[in-house]
Design brief:
2 copies of one chain form a homodimer. By secondary structure, the first copy, chain A, is α/β, with parallel strands linked by helices. Chain A contains 5 helices and 11 strands; from the N terminus they run ββαββββαβαβββαβα.
Chain lengths: 237, 237
């Protein structure tokens, strides 16, 4: 936890008593004592400083003072739904990296049963996203949306923003231009790749191939590598 | 498996009988029949084509014909040793991404007991590396070396190649120049970061900070993001 996240409804007049893993973390990892200060934030709100008021058996009481805006999320991810263990990791890592909307989609090479997994319930995936935010010191909780049928995706996508799909680009193809005015939409396929029909659909809807080199990456590797590369290109542009 | 890896000692006069997970993969995932051809390679050797000769109860017999050189590994990784589950993933992903030497090092924030883990035995980590190579369609098996004491690392590092450490860079610092003549050496710290003394040691030995943006990344995230970003900068330079 690089930042301790508080829910707005937990805070009354700037004060809050923590009783869950955050209290444990304050007590046993950070060895919190009254007067200690730590970086904190409010979900979907500001970042700031938490001051420990009291450490007791039944909880840790803290005061929170907001100090500024959190890093805003900066990309959307279209992800072919993957198996639970990989998805859990991608949820965490995407939240850390700054994803805004997560569109989890079906595909020819995605097992339909994946859409029934427990992890797709909000009470299951939300704590994973919050952990990822605390790692990345930010606060905006990514939105998760499910599209078992890919054809239902297109109308749900934001109309602005560069659309990029992780696919081998033609040899010598120029790097796609990146629109800096809106979050890019990044599409990552299943381990076996999108089908030809699916690739054609993405092309029809304006997705441009972006290559990560000659080595095929597993979905969870691409889901980190591609946002990292695009963030780097945007920072250096 | 995007490529099936054969060991040189398994092949006699171009022929080889597989009896392990590769035989299972050929039978049950690829539904191999005599005459079918698949991408294959020889560990630390060429890539080429495998032709199925026979599919039997006790194994799958194949012919291998070499066709070209595999993608060479292109970076070295200095990694603060992490817990087994994360390390297993980093081994796989680093092999896919094209790591050459993996220097696993101790640090103030690395538990000393990690150096006793089973996964650090060659018979345990080698299959994980081979899986990563098969994902990335390449053949050169990364070398793994252990440095429980960081001070033993410096003399073991290659003398050529840019030295980069994943750390916040000073605001507005120019991107470090990348030497294209030799593999860069990329250093990734423990989740809690390197100590001040360790950072000073890296600086003394020529490591330059390279930033991945304002969000602190977990070790396994940085171990994918940083090589991906450096590969992209090298490809676009």
């Amino acid at each position: 936890m690089n930042l301790i996240l508080l829910a707005p409804e937990e805070i009354a007049s700037g004060r809050c008593t923590l009783t869950d893993v955050r209290a444990n973390h304050l007590r046993t990892v950070l060895h919190a004592e009254p007067g200690d200060r730590f970086q904190a934030g409010v979900t979907d709100g500001p970042i700031g400083t938490l001051t420990v008021v009291g450490v007791g058996e039944d909880g840790v009481t803290v005061d929170f003072s907001p100090e500024g805006e959190a890093q805003p999320p900066w990309y959307d991810l279209v992800l072919a739904l993957t198996r639970p263990r990989q998805l859990r990791r991608i949820l965490f890592q995407s939240a850390t990296l700054g994803v805004r909307d997560l569109f989890l989609v079906g595909a020819a090479k995605v097992e339909k049963s994946y859409f029934n997994m427990h992890l797709l319930r909000e009470e299951e995936y939300r704590p994973v996203l919050l952990e990822g935010l605390m790692q990345g010191k930010t606060t905006a909780v990514p939105r998760v949306r499910l599209f078992p049928k890919l054809r239902d995706l297109w109308d749900a996508l934001p109309t602005a923003g560069s659309r990029l799909i992780a696919n081998p680009a033609p040899e010598g193809a120029p790097a796609p231009a990146l629109d800096r005015a809106a979050p890019p939409i990044i599409a990552i396929g299943p381990d076996g790749g999108w089908s030809e029909a699916e690739n054609a659909d993405f092309a029809t809807h304006g997705f441009v191939p972006i290559s990560l080199g000659p080595r095929p990456l597993r979905t969870d590797t691409a889901a980190v590598a591609l946002p990292a590369v695009i963030a780097d290109r945007l920072r250096r542009a």
